[in-house]
């Protein structure tokens, strides 16, 4: 057994603050997380929550210096595929990009400000889609549905869907992402790297970061697709320093004083700003300027000593105490500081050009500049040592009262209230997972001591569910064993009777996904026994998982009886995913019995549920989709059937759900046979057989794959196929010829009337047979072979 303590991934955790309720172009921007326990597998809104302020640049402040030379350069560089603006904190990256984004054709520019909570891939890609949707309405709507499905893989499904939408845009847009250094999640890095490399000509990408983003910069640079603006390019000139200090602080400095300040700060914008704050109100500006050193820490120390010390006591206390917050609003500040009318104080500070950056046009939400926040936190520790945990505790309570559970847990951990954070996780993990925030739950668990997780059966169980949700199936069994060995650390408040009950549900899900029907059957029976007559929502899940197990074993009458209980209109509370899953299986049972009318009726219900609750990309819908493809095949609509079956395969593989994947592959094989594409059928059968070797018990699929393989072998022996000396089948040779002609996989799929997945598999097989690794080598092989074929023999 693997030690579960070694399975903690190292994601950063972060906050996800309140937003504002509005709707735009079909994407819903929610004000806050749903309060109370969820009773729906799909989240209440089925939308990742996007803070509207993250989708627009911060408002310009009075005295803002427009750096026209940099803006002109950025406009020239923006023609590149990727522009990176890389500089440490305080060099004016955000201000420059804000001014550029609102210049020229502002409607063609999309903005996203990254926050620590965006480390969760669901949040990050939901934010990217929302930003793009503002500049190009309609982009990413299908991808957003995929994103909210369990175990969504951005690199495999979400990103390609977004790229396809972008490729169809009538005009070029630019996506600007600020503070990209906050993204540390490796899976997000991988999917974003794919996104950046495959951007169509209709999209430009501008990234602002404190360090080089994890993109293939060398490759982009070699291709001439990369433009770079770095810290030395962003130094303020003497003229810009004078304008900044005069416009913001009303300071009239001599040329000599400006030169000294330029040398001291080396054009560092934040240093100049803090120096300006320190200089305001001084009679002898020259003397003060000469005392400032050029090092960042000394300027910040001077700022803290000279500026903060002069603030009224209550204002200074508010500044220091709210430094524990990443974002703030009046009611939150009241709760944390114990003061009244914090909102009015925040507005006065913002109007006086001190400390705060407004995050929305209504001046409701604010944040501190990162460097100011660092100063404030250090001063808080110096002036009121030991107070920070209490402040985090108050912030946790406020976020909890607003239904912002992830933020509440994060602040509880920062407060050192680990037991409280653990209990909050135990109460709300299911809600967070079904809001698509599996990586957020994972990161919060990572912040708890490993020992605290291992000693609490609830936490081990949640770890197992997170692993299953993220598709890390090899980690599920170790966590189940750890849950059995540990003691319950407290009550389960999400409807489960016990840890044993939760483990049975997880085990049934895990066994089903790995193709072990015997194990799934035992676990699903046990979950039904343990959950009766407790929480109805979990009982519906137990009925569904048991019914699905019977379905795959071919026990249709028993399965139908359970599914009818699930879909009954009197069954409360409604579990839409389970209902959709059950309707799909009922459709397949009806079709197996030859009742086409009943099958179509169940399929229509499943389709309506999926559309209404945005479940199209859930792997549980794969059975319904395969059944639709079978019906289309029976009507002779082979091209449409192949497309639908390909969609089912994609959903099943996303799970990853082995039984559903095998079923979709066999469906594609049957379609290929009817279309006369024996090579394609052989390939699908081969994939299905390979996957069968990884399964323990696949029930009726054993008989189905045997029969489909027999028909395929029979067709192969009678179609007169001639294999070439290099071992390529006729279809593989045809695909290689189209590659050599410059066709993309999508174009080849259209030409041959097959799925893109089928083209990819043919290419993989062909590459292996002729000993090449990529398209260029394959094209060269085809050219050489044709040349040899046309060379006269001497």
Overall SS class = mainly alpha
Query: What is the distance, rounded to the nearest whole angstrom, between the alpha carbons of the first and last residues?
Result: 66 Å
Number of DSSP-assigned strands: 9
Largest sheet strand order: 4-5-6-3-7
Poorly predicted runs are 1-49
Task: Give the count of helical stretches.
Answer: 38
Radius of gyration: 30 Å
- Overall, the morphology is globular
Kindly state the percentage of residues in helix: 55-70%
Strand content: 5-15%
Description:
This protein is mostly helical and 794 residues long. Among the domains are: 66-189, no CATH class; 238-310; 730-790, Arc Repressor Mutant, subunit A, CATH 1.10.10. Helix content is 59%, strand content 5%. The chain has 38 helices and 9 strands. The strands form 3 sheets. It has a 5-stranded parallel sheet, sandwiched between helices. A two-stranded antiparallel sheet has the order 1-2. A hairpin with a 2-residue loop joins strand 1 (22-24) and strand 2 (27-29). Helix 25 (517-531) runs antiparallel to helix 26 (536-552). It starts with 21 loop residues before the first strand and ends with a helix. 51% of the residues are buried.
